Amino acid sequence: MTTRIKVGMADIKVVAAPGVLVTLGLGSCVGIALYDEFVKVAGLAHVMLPSSRRITNNENKAKYVDTAILQLIEDMTALGAKKERLTAKLAGGAQMFAYGNNSQNTLLKIGERNVASTLEELEGLKIPVISQDTGGNYGRTIEFFADTGKLIIRTIGHGVKEI
Amino acid sequence: MNFLNDGQLDVLKEIGNIGAGNAATSLSKLMSRRVDMKVPEVKVINFDEVEMVLGGAETLVAGIYMEFTGDIQGTIMFILDKSSAFNLLSFLMPNYRFKNHETFSSLESSALKEVGNILTGAYLSSLSTLTGLYVKPSIPALAYDMAAAILSVPMIEFGQIGEQAFFIETVFIDGLNQVKGNFFLIPKIDSYPIILRSLGVDR
Fold it and tell me: Model pTM?
């Protein structure tokens, strides 16, 4: 039987084939899916915030883009993956509430900032981003398959996608 | 909520109780009928427990989101599950026929925003009365989607200040139709000391 592992909010999980990583209802959070095709090892991080750099006391590495990616690489390496072989797929980063331009709350655009920060961090680490399904104003449930590296995205009212 | 002591957390819970109670009274007036309210439950959860809220991560819910400014700043969210949202709409528009339950028409969505406006307004005005602080709500925004996706908005706000989320679940009941609502009151981090000081519990 295939192992299905749930990845919660501010959480990181890794699995070898034929495992599947699942995260339910991504909103403004971003799902960062890294894959090593050679050893068929997959890792998924469900991050909430763009950067830990201004935080003095980071208790949860999975919460921030920068620290989550590093942790993800470390955990995948433990399963035999190599950083040089990793590729990335992204999903999420929606803006759930449209609020016009008057909003003083920059957090409503946090999805966009999470995605931008993820792309930047991955570029810095030289991990290529093969595909992404980000933005919009709707939630996404994603499944990441370790045997193929496929990422399936399900939504309410916006169809099903494979990236 | 690691920066708050137990006494301060209790005070915030009490604000939530009074606010939600006030909102239930408003709902009762709006519907011209009796609305019973269960004792509000105050919950403190970890982020990975968010799927246990509102019956599951993929449960379809309606979220009404408002910001507030004034002496303190923050956001407040009112969340209804799918059946509660449609039950509430049938209360408000007794002769109205729904096309489907997958989306809201513009009439349905403005009706829900208005309810959200009234209920969160009642909540915030009790906060203002209790603290003597000026609180000005913004216009509401509405989203209808998976619970976890909608909750990601308040969770991210909590994420900036700690490792846990704090919210008040209030169940309103009317006859056979059950309307169940959740309030999330999320002051900005620098507004906490102002609220606590105004209530004399700043230490």
Answer: 0.85
